[in-house]
Amino acid sequence: MFQVSLIVQKFGGTSVSNPESLKTVANKIIECKEGGNEVVVVVSAMGSSTDELIDLAEELSETPSPREMDMLLSAGERITMSLLAIHLNNLGYESFSLTGSQAGITTTSRHGMAEIENISGERVKEGIENGNIVIVAGFQGVNKETREITTLGRGGSDATAVALAASLDAERCEIYTDVEGVFTADPRIIKEAKLIEEITYDEMLEMASSGARVLMARSVEFGRRYNVPIIVKSTFNNGEGTIVKEKIMEEAIVRGVTHNDKEMKFTLFGVPDQPGIAGKVFGPLSEGGIIVDMIVQNVSKDSKTDISFTAPTDQSEEVMEVLSNLSNDLNAEGTDSDENIARVSIIGAGMKAESGVASKMFSILGKNKINIGMISTSPIRISCVIPKNDMNKAIEALHEEFISE
Ligand code: ADP
Ligand code: ASP
Ligand code: MG
Fold first, then answer.
1. Average pLDDT over every residue of 100-109
2. Which numbered atom of ligand 1 lies nearest the CA of 175?
3. Answer CATH for 6-178 from 3.40.50.410, 1.20.1250.20, 1.10.3720.10, 3.40.1160.10
């Protein structure tokens, strides 16, 4: 018997920024539907409207309540979803839109960075059974206990799309964006960056977590956990894009170079060098929802040590508050923050079996007179913190030596 496939298509902000692009998006959806598939669509807020909503709130308050911020930001996706349904209806296609909460997306309670816990998707399934194109607002859900609307963190519509694809047992999740797929480096910075045709979940997860914002890291985690193939491609042409999956044909030593200039370095000076001290420092940071990334503890002197770490710039106020409390509690010698840093990383599954990759990276940076402040590694990633001003030079040099050669 002929089997109908279910496909989840997600369209990011730049793909839905005005009525013209919404028409282009509708054509993609119709093409998929007319090809004999069931289609569920996830949309982001139009263009940069999430940023504009944040700016509006900041004009009125320096400390807007996280609950109200989620009420505000979740409105962005509602505008897109209803406009798209209105347009599809006008073209003669049965379609309706659902908020995250109406789609049965339940999350943890942390405003601004909630995590999806479950998707019941009842109304989505009913819509599909009745032949509708169901459009779901990305980036949002509801917490059952607090009954509050939550958002999933920047770029969170990717997570909505892949989690929805997993819960509906979709054949694949297609992420449509403003570039042709995942590249060996950000194509807006490196003109020679090449499109990656296939990449594993593990490599993509490292690329996303180290700065390749084309996919939100959590969406890749869902893909890996539930084995949903993710295809990243352009809304504006018909290229094949990139497929993210479990196993691929070709292993690369270095698959991609990423960068992140949205983190700061924080230091707590002169803390007592005793067992349990790291727990005392990082416990309160994690309780405060701070996403700590690289950590360095200096060699101790006179039984005191300095602890430095990186965390997102947009959490700097929360970090400094926790650190100044800690500085008092632990009788430390003060705190510092440094905005002038960036992180560059190289990622590739083949580096597990290859020696000398790290030293090659360090010598490339050294040859370019770029000072390394911190280093961290995973089996398939090496990251260096460098001065922000050197970031583009570093990405270019690393891409040239590891990928273009
Ligand atoms: P959307 O609005 O569709 O969600 P995003 O702005 O979140 O789009 O992500 C797409 C952007 O990610 C691209 O415009 C590109 O500049 C950036 N990007 C960073 N690193 C990469 C990479 N390695 N490959 C592709 N795009 C990347
Ligand atoms: N609109 C949200 C953002 O700008 C979510 C998304 O686009 O994925 O972060
Ligand atoms: Mg995005």
1. 98
2. 3
3. 3.40.1160.10
